[in-house]
Amino acid sequence: CNNSDTGGDSGSAADEKITLGFSQVGAESGWRTANTTSIKDSAAKAGIDLKFDDAQGKQENQITAIRNFIQQKVDVIAFSPKVETGFETVLKEAKDAGIPVILTDRAVDTPDKTLYKTFLGSDFVKEGKASGDWLVNEMKGATADVNIVELQGTTGSAPANDRKKGFADAIAANPKLKIIASQTGNFERAGGKAVMEQFLKANPKIDVLFAHNDDMGLGALEAITAAGKVPGKDIKIITIDAVKDGMQALADGKFNFIAECSPLLGPQLMELVKKVKKGESVPARIETQETTFTQEQAKAALPTRQY
Ligand code: AHR
């Protein structure tokens, strides 16, 4: 039976496959690798045709990728914006072309909220605050100043801006907690190591390192050990993400605390892609559920950690 009153749409299921253009920031960290795997695996499982572009850490590459997706007339565009500013023009182009956009993992800072359908990702301010709250509690008996160094993520990125703010707000509870140096390590291991080396040279007394992600903390470990100090003891280390290598360092007593940031956004993203393609309404903000880990909690969680 040929059901011809469906507007002539007699295509097979394969013809009706949704096409998703996804622009990834790069491959700067273990988190990012796990995020890319989650997106690719979930697209395959959901039967979505994924056009994946790796911008190799460059905003201009992301803008070019999004323009290419518009030209290819994909059904939906999703991307993890490297930084918060500078995407308005290309977002307007997508809107004018009638292609819905989903922000994934990181937000953009634009007054026009109609440029994207929703933002799926973590609350980075909360992650910074959880890190600071842990330190406030840990140092509650401190009689001398506690010298903190901070390794920031990519300059201008939502996680770097928000984690810095959340942490600073939390440690304001105790004036003895002082950030004596703060610089970007670009979310990379090599960056974390190089900047920590400088911090150690310039500051004879460092009590705490707050790194905006595990990878920078892991790089910093090498610098701390090379300087003859014991990570986790001489210098307490707080990081964010909770990828396997970070959790291992925490379980081994080299890190002291991790605030989780989940990279497993793929399944939720594919659900959203299907909904916006159908024209269904979606919440403007979908926040990822996450937790925190102490050394003991990391030991317990490690054996079943997926990434
Ligand atoms: O945007 C999420 C952050 O980007 C992760 O915390 C960090 O590891 C990554 O590079």
From TrEMBL:
A molecular function (GO) held by this record is: carbohydrate binding
* Stretches of the chain forming a coiled coil according to its record: none
A UniProt-annotated Pfam family: Peripla_BP_4
Protein's UniProt name: LacI family transcriptional regulator
- Work out whether the entry's keyword set contains rRNA-binding: no
Q: Member of which family?
A: Belongs to the bacterial solute-binding protein 2 family.
The record's annotation in PROSITE patterns points to:
PROKAR_LIPOPROTEIN
Specify whether Signal is a keyword of the entry. yes
What are the alphabetically sorted keywords of the record? Signal
- What is the organism of origin for this protein? Virgisporangium aurantiacum
Its main subcellular localisation, reduced to a broad class, is other
GO CC terms in record: cell envelope
The record's subcellular location field reads: Cell envelope
- Limits of the Periplasmic binding protein domain: 22-280
